[in-house]
Write a structure and sequence with these properties.
It contains six helices and seven strands; from the N terminus they run ααββαβαβαβββα.
Length: 174
């Protein structure tokens, strides 16, 4: 995976063109939108959603998919276009209850946002969900570690396949 990213950089793309960087010691992505407070979680599922979340009830099936066979909530990072203040407050209540959950605004704007979301999806083994009613558990990605602060979000250790990453590189080069 690291070799693939190094090849992208050698092709002349800068970090600003991709909205992410590769960390020196770990494989991961970083983009320039963060959360209101510094947060760090390990081993969480990731939902990439191109839409607006008014209420967490809309994504109950997603939340249920993050519960393991022992009934334990594994954690969820939601990367979406936007959520309501009400939904954001619900996430805060989850965290106050000791559960690993956070929302981060999706990076970039317009068509570029769609492309960057696809890039992230290929790196973490997710599918970008466009209609939440059609969500399947297989749409979730996985991140070994996420660190987010006021200015940036770093996703480390996704489960994306090399073939998917190579396909995204091919698309970018066209």
């Amino acid at each position: 995976f690291k070799e693939v990213i190094e090849r992208i950089i050698k092709l002349g793309f800068s970090e600003n063109e991709f909205y992410f960087t590769i960390l020196e010691n770990d494989t991961g992505i970083k983009y320039s939108i963060g959360v209101k407070m510094i947060e760090e979680f390990s081993e969480v599922s990731a939902l990439l959603y191109e839409g607006y979340i008014e209420d967490l009830k809309e994504i109950n099936n997603v939340i249920d998919s993050c519960v393991d066979e022992k009934g334990v909530f594994k954690g969820l990072i939601i990367i979406a276009d936007q959520i309501s203040t009400f939904a954001e407050n619900e996430i805060i209540k989850f965290k106050e209850g000791g559960l690993k959950m956070m929302y981060v605004k999706s990076p970039s704007y317009g068509v570029r946002r769609n492309e960057v979301m696809q890039d992230i999806a290929s790196l973490i083994g997710a599918n970008v969900v466009r209609d939440i009613s059609e969500f399947k558990k297989e749409d979730l990605g996985y991140v070994s570690k996420i660190i987010s602060d006021f200015n940036k979000t770093i996703l480390i250790g996704g489960e994306g396949s090399d073939d998917e990453v190579k396909e995204r590189i091919k698309i970018v080069n066209e």
